[in-house]
Amino acid sequence: MKMVTLALLFFLVGLVTKVSALNTCPKCGSIEVPYPLSTSENCGDSRYKVYCKNGSLQFLSAKGFYYNILSINPSAYKLVISPPLIQKNTCYSSDLTLGGLLLDENLPFNISTRNTVMLLNCTDNILLSPLNCSLNSFCRQFENVELGNGCRGTLCCHYLKDSAMTSHMIRVRVGGCTAYTSVVNLKPGDPIDSWTYGIELQWLPSN
């Protein structure tokens, strides 16, 4: 009886493993695509849609803008997307015309609380906000690296994307701030060459 039970247990474990393997999407370039993320109708969970385009795994915003996926941590239900490029001659983010990053609130993704967002090329109205726009703001360091030197001398601020704010948007606009970047898990005193540029998203576990 024990042997039958043991055999049945191994069978069920094998069946679950096989089903899970069948539902996992193939690699996209060098990045593994863990369940429930889905690159096609034949794998993953369609609510967790991502896109494999020319060997690059990408996340699609609610406004139709594609962001490259830099890394995925399936055990923490998190992935990191690249911030938009900043045009050096204008200090405009490449997603400015779409208002920045906007996530579909009907999908199981949101912006995590570990992102330090830097807003660049802002109008004076930003000074009425509680954001850090001082000379000690992280954005002043960002202006001194190649990624941000096109925004040098503009009014800039930073803030931690905490739970008190909307978790589905990083907003930029003409007449407000026209560019932004983000660093994941940034701590005071971290040298700038150790910064991890990205926007960390988290997803709700799949049923």
Write a brief structural summary.
With 207 residues, the chain is α+β, with helices and mostly antiparallel strands. The protein contains 2 helices and 15 strands.
Name its key features.
2 helices, 15 strands, 207 residues, alpha+beta
**Total separate domains:** 1
Strand order of the largest sheet: 3-4-5-6-15-10
Helix content: 10-25%
Structural class: alpha+beta
- Terminus-to-terminus distance: 33 Å
How much of the sequence is in beta strands? 25-35%
Q: Label the overall shape.
A: elongated
What does the oligomeric state look like here? single chain
Quote the average pLDDT: 90
- Tell me the radius of gyration: 21 Å
- Can you write the helix and strand succession as a string? HEEEEEEEEEEEHEEEE
What is the makeup of the main sheet? 6 strands, antiparallel
Low-confidence residue ranges:
4-21
- DSSP helix count? 2
Number of distinct beta strands: 15
Protein name: Wall-associated receptor kinase-like 20
Domain Wall-associated receptor kinase galacturonan-binding: 25-81
InterPro entries: WAK_GUB (IPR025287)
Membrane topology: Single-pass membrane protein
